[in-house]
Each structure stands twice: as C-alpha cells, then as structure tokens.
Amino acid sequence: MTDTKTIKVGLLGLGTVGTGVYKLIGRRSEEMQQKTGAALEIKKILVHNMKKVRQGVDQNLLTDQWKEIIEDDEIQIVIEVMGGIEPAKTMITEALKAGKNVVSANKDLIAEYGKELYDAAKEGSADFLFEAAVAGGIPIIRPLKQCLEGNQIDEIMGIVNGTTNYILTKMFEDGMDFTEALAKATELGYAEADPTADVEGLDAGRKVAIMATSAFHSQVKFSDVYTEGITKITAADVNYAKEMGNVIKLIGIARNTSNGIEAGVYPMMIDKKHPLATVRDSFNAVFVHGDAVGDTMFYGRGAGELPTASAVVGDVMDVTRNIVWNCTGRIGWSAYKELPIKEFADVKNRFFIRMQVSNEPGVLAAIAKVFGDHKVSIERVIQEQAKAAKAELVIGTSAVKEYHLQDALEELKEMPIVSEISSIIREY
After folding, report:
1. 28 and 50 fall within a common domain
2. Is residue 207 annotated as a catalytic residue, yes or no?
3. Which of 135, 158, 372, 397 is the most exposed place for a label (fewest CB within 10 A)?
4. Does 332 reside within a domain?
C-alpha cells in the first residue's frame, strides 16, 4: 500500500501493559494497514526513568517530557497505560481537549472521572476508548456500549479480579489457607507487593462502576459500589461450601432495579453447577442479562501483558479507522440517565452465617427469635458440636435486606449464649 496514511502515536507508560502494547503494535503492523487503512507508528514513549535500559525497545523513542507529545501535532493517538489518577488525568484531559484521541487502561481514573474525561473528548471531537480498563483481554465495554445496545440490561455479574480468583481456587482445590494462597499468587506475579486493592475488592469495585455506567446509561462511581474482600474467608467456610455443593467466588454485581441501581463486590457462595463456579485460577468471566438477548457470558484472561495489550490495541485500531473516515468522537458519554443509587443497606441478599454458641437447650430457639424479630427468615440450620460447652451453628437465610440482618447480628453479639459471629457470606 504505497499511499497508506501513517498515524503517529504517543505511548504513556512502558510497564507491563505498555511493553505489551509496544510489542503487539510491532507484531501486527502490516495487518493493521490492511484492517484499518492506515499504518501506525509509535513516535514517542513517555517514561519516568530515562536511564533504564529496556530490552527490545527503540531508546530513541523515549522521553520524560509530556510537552514533546502534547505539543506534537503529528501525534493523533495517545495511549495511556501509566495508571493512577495523576498525572494521567491531567494528561488525558489535555490530550482530548487538543483533539488527540485517547485509549486508556486506567480503571482507577475512569471509575471516578469518566464523565469529565468524556466532556473533554467532546470538546476536542476526539475518541476516548477504554476496553482494557475492565477484564483485561475480554471484550466487555464495547459489547455493552455497542453490540448489546438494543437491550434493556438489568444485571451484570462476574469474576473480574484474577488475583482473588486464583487465591480462592487454591483454597478450594489445594486446601491452602488464605495466607498461603496469597503467597503463591505473589510468587507467580498475580498479586502485587501490596495486594490490598485486589484482596479487599477495590480493584473489582472500580470495574463494576465502569460496567454499570456503560450498561445502565447512568453514572455509577467507584464510591457508589459497596466493596468487601476475601481476607476473612477461612478453611471452615470452604468446607461448609463444599458440603452444600457450593463454591465461594469474589463476585462483582450490578442490578438496575425499579428502585435504583445496586452495585457491590463481595464473596458469594454460588452453586457449583453455575457457569461462574468453573472459572478457575486467574481467569475472569462476566455475565450480562438483557431483555432481548437473555444471558450472555464473556470469559478469558482478565489481566497480563498481552491479554490487556490485546484490548488496548483493539481500541487503537478502532480509533485509527475513525481517523481514516473522519468520524472521531462518534460514540461519546452514554450515561444520559440520572438513576438513583440504592443504599446498600436496602439491598436484599441471602446469607450464610457461621457462629459459635453455647451448647445448651434453648439456644437455637433464642437465636431464631432474634432473627424473626428483625424480619430475617431462616431456610436451614446446621449444628455441629465443637467442644463440650460450645457448638458451631450455621444458619442460611432467605433474601433479606442488609440492614435487617445487621440489626439482628448486632443484637446476637450482645447475647451471652453467642461467643462469636465467625463468618457472614452472601449466597447467590
């Protein structure tokens, strides 16, 4: 293609994902011309440390000066894979307002400032795409914003954090405790040195906010998402789950109900026959329910150098086509509704509750009365004697509002016959 247009790219960040993007663009350069009608050329790569030697990367492309990218009129696409809020937010905003198209993988930023970034994109008539911000290489944002647009979507649920899924898989299949499984995940590179964002559900919460906003056409911020991690899951919980034919997964879930949007991330017991129960190790999967399509499931690698780079480069190719056809900015902020966010206390869930109680007559009746007084209906009871004076009591509830259950548990904690509330896990 002798007269092929060449589109220049600025890459912000050269960590794991940035390196993958660099590799993949190089690997696919000839095919990209055929698929998009233009050649791509990375002109500048913004890095923090210019002295660091990066194998396989043209050192002449490196810069630590943002102005070399933002002030270069030849650069039409900016790829942001630095992560974090600042300076990424300022750089993306400046690029979009200047008419440069932006592709980002920054879930932290998009989950909180998506509206502002789309406003900047509108001002610059530019594309702002972020497929890689959720579920790595799995296509989910484009399906929600385009392929499934003919649906009224009322529920999204899934496993969107590979680290916690790996940990729970090892706890179930290999009998590891949480600490041991986390150490293994760290050794294999699935967990960061500080795993808080993963194991406390924060990473998944940001992804739920982005998916809910895209699916329900109403802004959901990370601060609107209830988050709870997996650090309290024990071997005893795993054993009970197995006995009941369940597995425990960290589930992100968002529902568009008549009373508002529900959004949360928390460990859930799900039936081992449910498709999500078979999602193992570091894989991710997302279920979407629409009124026309019914149930759809998206499954694959949720993180990693090349899976995430796959999503970034897919967005870059989409932007390239739009530049070739002079139609950038055609898909903007789609959250045109202003739906209320339901208080999590009003959300209904079923619960698995494990507690240590006195081993004496009348205990179960007293506990059942407290639950009944707070509108909590009991579906099943399992009682196992742990020691002569103590017994372990497991209670499964019907769907109940969160605040009714919490009120009941607060009263139970004050009762002398209850020595400990050991576990509280939601059930699907």
Report:
1. yes
2. yes
3. 372
4. no
User: Do 290 and 373 fall within a single domain?
Assistant: no
Query: Is 144 one of the annotated binding-site residues?
Result: no
* Whether residues 39 and 128 fall in one domain: yes
What is the CATH number for 17?
Answer: 3.40.50.720
Q: Is 16 assigned to a binding site?
A: yes
pLDDT in tens, the chain (428 residues): 446 799 999 999 999 999 999 999 999 988 999 999 999 999 999 999 998 988 899 999 999 999 999 999 999 999 999 999 999 999 999 999 999 999 999 999 999 999 999 999 999 999 999 999 999 899 999 999 999 999 999 999 999 999 999 999 999 999 999 999 999 999 988 888 899 999 999 999 999 999 999 999 999 999 999 999 999 999 999 999 999 999 999 999 999 999 999 999 999 999 999 999 999 999 999 999 999 999 999 999 988 899 999 999 999 999 999 999 999 999 999 899 999 999 999 999 999 999 999 998 999 999 999 999 999 999 999 987 656 788 999 999 999 999 999 999 999 999 999 999 999 999 99
Residues 21 and 130 in one domain: yes
| In a domain? residue 337 | no
Report the 3 state secondary structure along the chain: CCCCEEEEEEEECCCHHHHHHHHHHHHCHHHHHHHHCEEEEEEEEECCCCCCCCCCCCHHHEECCCHHHHCCCCEEEEEECCCCCCCHHHHHHHHHHCCCEEEECCHHHHHHHHHHHHHHHHHCCCCEECHHHCCCCCCCHHHHHHHCCCCCEEEEEEECCHHHHHHHHHHHHCCCCHHHHHHHHHHCCCCCCCCHHHHCCHHHHHHHHHHHHHHHCECCCHHHCEECCCCCCCHHHHHHHHHCCEEEEEEEEEEEECCEEEEEEEEEEEECCCHHHHCCCCEEEEEEEECCCEEEEEEEECCCHHHHHHHHHHHHHHHHHHHHCCCCCCCCCCCCECCCECCHHHCEEEEEEEEEEECCCCHHHHHHHHHHHCCCCEEEEEEEECCCCEEEEEEEECCEEHHHHHHHHHHHHCCCCEEEEEEEEEEC
Q: Please tell me whether 114 is known to bind a ligand.
A: no
Considering the candidates 207, 221, 249, 401, report the single residue annotated as catalytic.
Answer: 207
The residue range of the domain holding 287 is 149-301
Same domain, yes or no: 219 and 99: no
Tell me whether residue 19 is annotated as binding: yes
Q: Quick one: 272 and 188 in the same domain? A: yes
> What pTM did the predictor assign?
0.94
Are residues 292 and 364 part of one domain?
A: no
